[in-house]
Design brief:
single chain; 246 residues; alpha/beta; Rossmann fold; 7-stranded parallel beta sheet; 8 helices; 43% helix; globular; binds NADP nicotinamide-adenine-dinucleotide phosphate
Amino acid sequence: MALADYKTALVTGASSGIGAAVVTALRARGISVFATARRIERLEALAAETGCTPLALDLRDTDALYDTLGGLDVDILVNNAGLGRGFEALFEASREDIETTLSTNVIAAAHVLRAVVPGMVARKCGHIVNLGSIAGLYPIKSSIYGASKGAIHLLSQNLRIELQGSGVRMTEICPGRVETEFFQVAVGEEAAKKAYSGFEIMVPEDVSDAILYALDTPWRVNIGTIEMTPNEQFTGGVTIVPVARD
Ligand SMILES: NC(=O)c1ccc[n+]([C@@H]2O[C@H](COP(=O)([O-])OP(=O)(O)OC[C@H]3O[C@@H](n4cnc5c(N)ncnc54)[C@H](OP(=O)(O)O)[C@@H]3O)[C@@H](O)[C@H]2O)c1
């Protein structure tokens, strides 16, 4: 199954950033796309530009999620919606930050898969793309967000095994820093400016290009994990910080 064999897609988190770039790229390849997020005015603007079908939905409303997505027959699922509240330290996060991040990034992502994947399995045709992060692969000083994306990493790896013999392909994309609204939502406007300055970071189209590459490989290939960072961003290493004790 190369991209030319797929006809329909669902992209979550389509109102900005990576999701909007994926919708645009898929529409340019002639795929019919259902684009979902909470901000309907953004989706309508994207629909006017690309011809996608907007679906307003708060993914944390599980009943609405199944009502809206349960009946969709799609060949491609880009399970992309996510955020990073309480990004900087667990012990400084509010109770709400913890709930919001885990319920959006993990619980809602799992329900989206449960709503959509049975149809793919029944039709023996499908390609799932989960948005992980380098934060799910390495410690980057972000416990809650890292935990959510670490969960997506192992969810993706296990799902690939569960899908054996189904014909449904499974790809996880683990980006480093990308210029989207992610950091505004995570840490606010001012702190976000710092996150996006000082080095050349990736743009959403870099990630959508990687997703299109994975979707476009021939049926005999499954691209399991793509890890991509800005050229000037690095992961790993050991830090020593002595603590001044009384
Ligand atoms: N930017 C980065 O540096 C980076 C790096 C690695 C991984 N990622 C991952 O990439 C994915 C896309 O993020 P982005 O960078 O493109 O950020 P973004 O521009 O903030 O986009 C996030 C999207 O998620 C949607 N969303 C959030 N909560 C939702 C909810 N409860 N219901 C429905 N939709 C919801 C937002 O739409 P509404 O607000 O309109 O609902 C928005 O469309 C996320 O999973 C993120 O963790 C980002």
